[in-house]
Amino acid sequence: QVQVVESGGGLVQPGGSLRLSCAVSGNIVSFNAMGWYRQAPGKERELVAGITRESRTIFADSVKGRFTISRDNAKNTVYLQMNSLKPEDTAVYYCNAELLVIGVAGYRDYWGQGTQVTVSS
Predict the structure, then answer these.
(1) Integer Cα distance of 115 and 28 in angstroms
(2) What is the pLDDT of residue 35?
(3) Edge-to-edge, what's the strand order for the sheet holding 67-72?
(4) Residue 39 is inside which H or E element, if any?
């Protein structure tokens, strides 16, 4: 009914860059906020960056100045540009979309399967 598909993860050296993409499709009436979360081994899932429908953004303190988030509403896609990557950024990154879906009452959160980001030399 709804597909949330991340791409762009991989292995990168410290100081490098990666761009994650998240494409959302399905029986969607409307989008609200979208965002990226991450979960490292042994840790809880945490918000990395979020963006509202009006493109207001929020970032975790640990990524401010290094990561940017953007969205293309025409393509139902959200992006996470990650620069100056550090080993502590290593985690599985998950896309989240707050959606109003045909046949479902109210906005609800939908998640992707996650994409691995590994920062290592």
Answers:
(1) 23
(2) 97
(3) 2-7, 18-26, 77-82, 67-72
(4) strand 28-39
Nearest in space to 21 (alpha carbons), one of 88, 83, 71, 55: 71
What are the per-10-residue average pLDDT scores of the chain (121 residues)? Answer: 95 98 94 96 97 95 98 93 98 97 93 97 95
pLDDT value at position 1?
A: 86
DSSP states of 58-109: EE-GGGTTTEEEEEETTTTEEEEEE-S--GGG-EEEEEEEEEEETTS-S-EE
> 15: which 2 tokens?
């100081």
**Cα 114 from Cα 92, distance rounded (Å):** 6
